[in-house]
């Protein structure tokens, strides 16, 4: 008969105890994983009730329902100049008219011709933090279930320069959620299913979304029939380097500015005394270091108001007062 010493017996029970603890940890981990999976699936199902397919003449995208009577927001680039589009939620399809667009911010507002819809719950993009878990949804082909992807917020208030030609996208949300072309116009939601952004692009391995606070402001304006406007100066300009000695002499901490190459006759810039060769370094109290800063600074709220512009002229820092207008010289 074999005798088992106490050390061997103790080791036998100790090993089995460890196996039991590991199994318990594994079961607990699987329960957490299942809970996360179920919660994500439920969140997608809830949000999908407010997601529609958008079919334009030459492209497809996604839209988000804002109101029960069928106001829907999507991306302007999805429409490609169409006057009417079709929207769909599975078997429910209808035509929608384009209420208005804001090409600069890539926002378009649609109105369904008929039907009752489920509006999405609004979030607050001002409260976003880096690291928050997000979901992006799309349904460009009007399937029974949407396509979804997930990720986290990697940056808030980002700037994407040189995007879509000569424009820049300001104050956008960047995530690591991978987006395909059909995601344009679709919702970016938080863990509560609240809308925090409208997906617009996937660049440099980052999903780009327009913050919902900005989208809501634009949509509210378009609903009331007011078109999006940008301030106008009437100049042709581009980014230039500022020589170090001139920057030091003028007390500037920036290395670049925007040089004016020509000034349109009768324009706000001409009336303010700006001239060819001037280098614009500040506008409305904010630095101008790049040509793409100007569209951002010429927002609607400066139209018709006196704004201070700081320039370098012949190595001297000067200040001028300019009153931006809308293109064509009208003020609102």
Structural class: alpha+beta
Predict the CATH topology of the domain at 125-216: Thrombin, subunit H
Mean pLDDT: 87
Give the overall shape, derived from the CA principal axes.
globular
Give the strand line-up of the largest sheet: 1-2-3-6-5-4
Overview of this protein structure:
With 332 residues, the chain is of the alpha+beta class. Among the domains are: 46 residues; 92 residues, Thrombin, subunit H, CATH 2.40.10; 88 residues, PDZ domain (Pdz3 Domain), CATH 2.30.42. Helices cover 23% and strands 37% of the residues. It has six helices and 18 strands. The strands form three sheets. It has a six-stranded antiparallel β-barrel. β2 and β3 form a beta hairpin. The N and C termini lie far apart (104 Å).
For the structure shown, list the relevant keywords.
332 residues, alpha+beta, Thrombin, subunit H, Pdz3 Domain, 6-stranded antiparallel beta barrel, 18 strands, globular, disordered N terminus
Concise overview:
The protein is of the alpha+beta class and 332 residues long.
Write the layout of secondary structure elements.
Layout: H1 6-48, E1 51-55, E2 60-65, E3 71-74, H2 76-79, E4 84-89, E5 92-102, E6 107-112, E7 133-138, E8 147-163, E9 167-175, E10 187-189, E11 195-203, E12 206-211, H3 212-223, E13 235-241, H4 244-250, E14 256-263, H5 268-271, E15 279-283, E16 286-287, H6 293-297, E17 307-313, E18 316-322
Antiparallel strand pairs: 1-2, 1-4, 2-3, 3-6, 4-5, 5-6, 7-8, 7-10, 8-9, 9-12, 10-11, 11-12, 13-14, 14-15, 15-16, 15-17, 17-18
